[in-house]
């Protein structure tokens, strides 16, 4: 009997992850490439996608693969075919599905990467059984998605869920989207690393241990490094994560006012910090929630599918034709 496999491709700010996904959400085969960062030609990223799909098709019976889903880190139009704008890539009104369909001869679905991750968590992960969910993905920036009564709410123009570009600090830090003070400039992986480097550049003695762990090379600082240092008890790393968590909680309180979800699911690479991040986020959320003490309070939990959520969800959206 033929298997109904689907390929999911998750395009982030730093990596293009791909996988063959079965109907239970299990990944049977994988591939990974670096994102062609800041490429001036959209075709370079498209080549990377095609190479990933071709590699995966060689690992399975291609007759078993029914569709390909692309989760793109950008604004995807309501046609589910065009990437309107990608802050971390070169796509501007890019007809991605049409370009890929010339080279990949399978049905192709394009969606925002956070929508894909949210769908995976709704089908197979932390959001199963919850009717109203906001999913936040913390990585290079902040992605977001909204699940209402079993479907992804994409908005009139397909661009709902871009919560990372809510302005929470007027006149604040410049964002790659063109505005200032966006949420992702305060509660993302980039923000975490930027704040740590700022402390190092200022010569603050409180980062001496963290800098020593790097062998004195501040350029080698990464978000995962900070998280690992925090797990090992570094007080500055823990403080940095708590600061990011506080900004996260403030943004979640704003979203609770707008959408009144029953559950927030926090995913993305930065969520690996777990309670060192989510604990401070819950505290800030409770302090900032309008009507606190007199209204039901949404739960805040960590996603369970980790970095696989985007490709799993992209594959499932494509298989189901959602």
From TrEMBL:
Name of a matching Pfam family: ROK
PANTHER family found in the cross-reference section: GLUCOKINASE, ROK (REPRESSOR, ORF, KINASE) FAMILY
Enzyme's top EC category: transferase
EC number: 2.7.1.2
The name this protein goes by in its record: Glucokinase
Keywords tagged on the record: ATP-binding, Kinase, Nucleotide-binding, Transferase
NCBIfam families associated with the record: ROK_glcA_fam (TIGR00744)
Family indicated by similarity: Belongs to the ROK (NagC/XylR) family.
């Amino acid at each position: 009997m033929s298997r109904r496999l689907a390929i999911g491709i998750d395009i982030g700010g730093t990596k293009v992850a791909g996988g063959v996904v079965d109907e239970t959400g299990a990944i049977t085969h994988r591939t990974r490439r670096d994102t062609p960062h800041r490429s001036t030609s959209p075709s370079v990223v498209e080549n990377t996608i095609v190479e990933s799909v071709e590699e995966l098709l060689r690992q399975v019976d291609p007759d078993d693969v029914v569709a390909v889903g692309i989760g793109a880190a950008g604004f995807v139009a309501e046609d589910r075919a065009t990437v309107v704008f990608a802050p971390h890539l070169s796509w501007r009104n890019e007809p991605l599905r049409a370009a890929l369909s010339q080279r990949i001869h399978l049905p192709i679905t394009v969606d925002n990467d956070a929508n894909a991750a949210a769908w995976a968590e709704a089908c197979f992960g932390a959001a199963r059984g919850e009717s109203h969910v906001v999913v936040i993905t913390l990585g290079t920036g902040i992605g977001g998605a909204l699940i209402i009564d079993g479907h992804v709410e994409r908005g009139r123009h397909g661009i709902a869920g871009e919560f990372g570009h809510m302005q929470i600090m007027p006149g604040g830090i410049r964002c790659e989207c063109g505005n200032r003070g966006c949420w992702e400039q305060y509660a993302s992986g980039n923000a975490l690393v930027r704040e740590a480097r700022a402390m190092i550049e200022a010569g603050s003695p409180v980062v001496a241990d963290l800098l020593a762990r790097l062998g004195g090379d501040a350029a080698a600082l990464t978000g995962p490094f900070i998280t690992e240092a925090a797990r090992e008890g570094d007080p500055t790393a823990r403080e940095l994560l708590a600061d990011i968590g506080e900004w996260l909680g403030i943004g979640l309180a704003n979203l609770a006012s707008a959408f009144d979800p029953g559950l927030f699911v926090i995913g993305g690479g930065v969520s690996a910090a777990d309670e060192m991040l989510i604990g401070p986020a819950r505290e800030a959320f409770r302090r900032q929630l309008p009507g606190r003490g007199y209204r039901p309070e949404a739960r805040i939990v960590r996603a369970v599918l980790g970095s696989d959520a985007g490709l799993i969800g992209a594959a499932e959206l494509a298989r189901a034709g959602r």
